[in-house]
């Protein structure tokens, strides 16, 4: 397996399919619907110029990914996804360790992420990886929280490599 950063010159169609399949279980569970419904391969390609899109590949096919964006002194971890056949093998944990290493390299304080209120299994998974809930947000037009914000401080300890 290879972990590499995608650039605008990569083929984003397979990555787009991985994301849609990985996030499909949320359809009908979360309100409002996921931003995945609006994301396109060209949209991902455009994001590669401003964000770090890291992809774990097996035989040149994406099996897991994450998008990292420096934001307010932290590194925002978005669109963490692992393909169904490759789940429960530690890939998400390995990606988060890489995100911690990137956070250190960029000299940022920690990792942040948002997870939907309804996805309680994600709350537990991220908590077990060292994240803690630091707040909640509501999508535009909602008078109640729709997402939790979670944070994991990153120390200057050795890199995970």
UniProtKB/TrEMBL annotation:
Q: Which GO terms describe its molecular function?
A: acyltransferase activity, transferring groups other than amino-acyl groups
Residue intervals of the N-acetyltransferase domain: 1-155
**A Pfam family in this protein?**
Acetyltransf_1
Q: Does the keyword Acyltransferase apply?
A: yes
Which InterPro entries has this protein been placed in?
Acyl_CoA_acyltransferase (IPR016181), Bact_Acetyltransf (IPR050832), GNAT_dom (IPR000182)
Q: Which UniProt keywords apply?
A: Acyltransferase, Transferase
Cross-referenced PROSITE patterns: GNAT
PANTHER family in the record: AMINOALKYLPHOSPHONATE N-ACETYLTRANSFERASE-RELATED (PTHR43877:SF2), AMINOALKYLPHOSPHONATE N-ACETYLTRANSFERASE-RELATED-RELATED (PTHR43877)
Q: What is this protein called?
A: Acetyltransferase (GNAT) family protein
